[in-house]
Write a structure and sequence with these properties.
Keywords: Cytoplasm, Hydrolase, Lipid A biosynthesis, Lipid biosynthesis, Lipid metabolism, Lyase, Metal-binding, Zinc. The chain is α+β, with helices and mostly antiparallel strands. The chain is built from 10 helices and 24 strands. Helix content is 24%, strand content 33%. The two termini are 45 Å apart.
Length: 467
């Protein structure tokens, strides 16, 4: 069934102060055209600069996800984006009169409620889902973080947290249906932190808008009345008495859900996944996630999107074990007979690695002269096949591929180990070692029946075709 993009029926506004900056601002959600995505607009700055909510615009992940462009930033975007993503809104202009959305009650619910009040409008373009067909993983062994996306023709997400604190323990939560569960079960889960963190952050002046009413503070240390009073002054809430709760939470605040911290981590992850710029179909499993790991995971998803950009554009027929067949390659590379020297691409990891196949037959024109009676593939043509392989890796994701060409800049450490003969199948592996703007270096190796026959380090650049 074709599912159409969604925006708002009308605009809606909220007012409040930011959690970290403490600055008051108004946030206004407005309808937006198809394929607009989410864009924050700083109306407090001359010319109202826009910042698309995309992973490449993330500039900081300290205590929240901050996006920025050309020196202009918006802090703590995750609760706003979590509400938009959870309600499956695809296009929205988010005007904000300050550097940070209002924290409200520390959850996404006030934003979600306002968006629901504004109403939804279906648009005349289908949603552009990211549907994965392989496992995508992010692991951080130092912080015991694991996030995995598994192929699934719908969206599910499960989160586990374990802070080894009596008030929290080990918690997990799962969302299996955005339509039925997001608003009721997840949008109202509030941000949380530990008392020791609050003290440290208050000393640094990082949570100027922090309050016991917009965050759950979990007690992980003892403090006397004077210390609690001093903390209240630093937070600007000396009018409120702070007490160590006997339920493990500052001021004995009640949780909205028994596993509210785990649900909020899931909400944060939703908000960070929104930075992908398209809805995701996958089963996401996350252990001990945080904004830094969420962003790295979304970067892995973005690499998958970019790696398959050419495949979606040129490889119209899906074939087992083939990323690009010869028809797709001919649309990507400008080379033609007798100088197109690769037959298919069988493996591709964007900005990392690519593997091609070249079937060497006696019909190759160069065998007529190299050498009569003793046909051997010229080493320079093996290098050319390596270069064409690396060229596809460099061109992938290039918006002007038809007007671009990959040019050699250098060859180093070329070694020819064994002759390549008619009937051989060359397996060429190119691994990217350095990338600066439009200049790339990659190490390439060619194998026949698992034996190394040639290797070299190549440098190339992407340049516009001459008119």
């Amino acid at each position: 069934m074709l599912i159409l993009q969604r925006t708002l029926q009308k605009e809606v506004s909220l007012w409040g102060s930011g959690l970290h900056t403490g600055k008051e601002c108004m946030i206004t959600f407005k309808p937006a055209p198809v394929n607009y995505g989410y864009r924050f607009v700083r109306t407090d700055i001359d010319d109202s600069p826009e910042i698309p909510a995309l992973i490449e615009n993330v500039v900081d992940v300290l205590r929240g996800t901050t996006i920025g462009l050309n020196g202009v930033k918006v802090h703590t975007t995750e609760h706003v984006l979590g509400a938009l993503y959870g309600l499956q809104i695809d296009n929205c202009r988010i005007e904000i009169s300050g550097p940070e959305p209002p924290v409200m009650d520390g959850s996404s619910h006030p934003f979600a409620a306002a968006l629901i009040e504004a109403g939804f409008k279906e648009q005349d373009e289908p949603k552009n889902y990211l549907v994965i067909d392989e496992t995508i993983e992010y692991h951080d062994a130092n912080n015991s973080v694991d996030i995995v996306a598994l192929p699934l023709d719908s969206f599910r997400i499960t989160v586990m947290v374990d802070y080894k604190n009596p008030a929290l323990g080990s918690q997990h939560s799962g969302l299996f249906d955005l339509d039925k569960e997001f608003v009721k079960e997840f949008s109202s889960s509030r941000t949380f932190c530990f008392l020791s963190e609050v003290e440290a952050l208050a000393n640094q002046g990082i949570i100027k808008g922090g309050d016991v009413d917009n965050a759950i503070v979990i007690i992980d240390k003892t403090m006397c009345e004077q210390e609690l009073s001093d903390l209240g002054k630093k937070l600007g809430i000396e009018s409120k008495n702070l007490v160590l709760g006997d339920n493990g939470i500052l001021n004995n605040r009640e949780l909205r859900f028994k596993n509210e911290p785990a649900r909020h981590k899931l909400l944060d992850l939703l908000g960070d996944i929104a930075l992908l710029g398209m809805p995701l179909k996958a089963q996401v499993l996350a252990a001990r996630p945080g904004h830094a790991s969420n962003v790295e995971f979304v970067k892995q998803l973005k690499k998958y999107v970019d790696r398959n950009k050419l495949a979606r554009q040129f490889q119209h027929e899906k074939k087992a074990g083939v990323i690009f067949d010869i028809n797709a390659i001919q649309q990507i590379l400008p080379h033609r007979y007798p100088f197109l020297l690769i037959d298919k691409i069988i493996e591709f990891k964007l900005d990392e690695k690519i593997v091609s196949i070249k079937n060497v037959t006696i019909n190759e024109p160069f065998f007529q002269g190299h050498f009569p009676g003793n046909p051997i593939m010229p080493g320079v043509l093996i290098l050319e096949a390596m270069a064409q392989t690396g060229g596809i890796m460099m061109l992938n994701g290039n918006d002007n591929i038809k007007e671009s060409v990959v040019l050699f800049m250098g060859i180093d450490k070329a070694r020819f180990r064994k002759p390549v003969l008619p009937g051989d199948t060359l397996v060429i592996e190119a691994i990217l070692t350095n990338k600066r703007r439009n200049i790339c270096q990659f190490d390439a190796k060619a194998y026949v029946r698992g034996e190394l026959v040639c290797e070299a380090s190549l440098m190339a650049t992407v340049a516009p075709k001459s008119k």
